[in-house]
Design goal:
alpha/beta; 48% helix; binds zinc ion; elongated; single chain; three-stranded parallel sheet
């Protein structure tokens, strides 16, 4: 059976070699008849490399496997997702805002932070939110081999099982980066890969107003919104803007009759309605 062992980095390396050789041949006036085959081959390889890279880094591309970014539904539902935590005091503050407004959310947690703050993981679950796996140390999975990718995911699954008694069935690769091997490792574990359809770059702290406006202007029925209660494994940046923006986003979207659901419900809607991923 064919096994997708080829990493994006290997393919890009191979394409680079072909580009260099093709351009060299063209420069030496070889491979120029009947057309400039060397030059065209180089252009083709560059385009292929660009295409393969975009498929790996942009959410919503399915070349390497199914990635969920939203539900194509008419129902006015949206899912808030928070990445990189738990990270005190911001995770508690986000949880407080969610509780005050009776809103469920989904937290893609980093294993190292789970180890540091297991009581926050417990609180997330006790208050009815969903957990997702965001790897153990938040690496770029495109740079790891198959065994390392598996270890990153498995370690966090084990930790979450020890704390909550269950394992998540969803994961989000750090930065959203994935290739065929990443997707295969997740499929072997029945982990659905969930990314997002609304991004507001809250991690650079652009201001509460900006975060709120970016989210509210892009949201539509079935959106999955990406926010950050944490800051990778470094946990140095403030997430105060995200906390306040979350409060405003909830108020604004509620006034527009949106209902907040977990990613699980978004996925169920997607399956029920037989819509695109
Ligand atoms: Zn992250």
């Amino acid at each position: 059976m064919f096994e997708a062992n080829l990493r994006l980095s290997s393919v890009l390396g191979l394409l680079t070699v072909v580009v260099v050789i093709s351009l060299l041949l063209d420069y030496c006036r070889l491979l120029r008849r009947p057309a400039r085959i060397g030059l065209w081959l180089a252009i083709l390889c560059i385009m292929a490399g660009l295409g393969l890279t975009l498929q790996a880094v942009l959410p919503g591309n399915h070349f390497y496997g199914p990635v969920f970014i939203e539900a194509a539904t008419q129902e006015k539902i949206v899912a808030l997702t928070f990445d990189d935590g738990p990270y005190p005091p911001y995770t508690q503050q986000v949880l407080n805002v969610l509780k005050e407004n009776g809103v469920p959310a989904t937290f893609f947690v980093v294993g190292k932070n789970v180890e540091r703050y297991p009581e926050l993981v417990k609180r997330i679950v006790e208050e009815g939110h969903q957990l997702g796996n965001h790897t153990y140390s938040h690496p770029d999975l495109l740079k790891l081999d198959r065994g390392q990718i598996a270890a990153e995911v498995d370690k966090t699954q084990r930790l979450l099982f020890e704390i909550t008694g269950r394992v998540p069935d969803i994961m989000r690769p750090p930065h959203g980066f994935r290739d065929a091997v990443v997707m295969e490792v997740m499929a072997e574990r029945n982990l659905k890969v969930v990314e997002w359809s609304v991004m507001c770059r809250d991690w650079v702290n652009p201001g509460v107003e900006t975060i709120t406006r970016r989210v509210v202007s892009k949201v539509k029925s079935g959106s999955i919104i990406l926010l950050h209660d944490g800051d990778g494994v470094d946990s140095t940046a403030s997430r105060a803007q995200t906390v306040e923006a979350t409060r405003r986003i909830i108020h604004e979207l509620k006034s527009q009759d949106y209902r907040f659901v977990t990613v699980d419900e978004i996925l169920k809607t997607t399956a029920k309605e037989g819509t695109a991923l």
